[in-house]
Write a structure and sequence with these properties.
Length: 155
């Protein structure tokens, strides 16, 4: 169906028709950024620690994805949101998972609000928690010293 056919059916849609192939990816990116900032604001007001559930899965075409879901309490109601659905390109190992989780926590600014992190019993999850919590502890110590000595730093 081309745009002229759509306009014949409904002339009122002319202003919302997409005419460039770069428009849809741009609109998706802008929408994602907008909703990510809204979620960051919601998470910052959490009445509880923010807990994570993490799942690594492989699609039928053998692509690995890591889902990171946040769970928290807001206005005394349980909340949850998908923080990231990252494609793992090189490895499915625990170290790479830990790096993706930490990057996601930093993106949302919730490292200091972290509670529990739950995952399934995959072999890579034997390594992931150790690497993940080691990185989080180092990050929090680093941030503490920056704040303690009033060093300007954007983390």
């Amino acid at each position: 169906v081309c745009s002229s056919d759509l306009l014949i059916c409904n002339p009122n849609i002319e202003e919302i028709l997409v005419e460039s192939r770069s428009t849809v990816p741009r609109l998706l990116s802008e929408s994602f950024t907008f909703h990510q900032k809204l979620l960051q604001a919601r998470l910052s007001l959490s009445q509880s620690l923010i807990h994570l559930s993490v799942d690594l899965w492989t699609s039928p075409n053998r692509r690995a994805y890591l889902a990171i879901i946040a769970h928290w309490v807001d206005q005394w109601e349980r909340q949850r949101a998908l923080l990231a659905l990252s494609r793992l390109h090189r490895s499915r190992g625990g170290e790479l998972q830990a790096a993706h989780i930490l990057e996601t926590l930093q993106t949302y600014g919730i490292c200091s609000q972290l509670g529990y992190c739950t995952s399934d019993n995959a072999i890579s999850n034997d390594i992931m928690p150790h690497d993940f919590y080691r990185h989080v502890i180092i990050f929090l110590i680093f941030k503490y010293h920056i704040n303690k000595y009033d060093i300007e730093w954007n983390i």
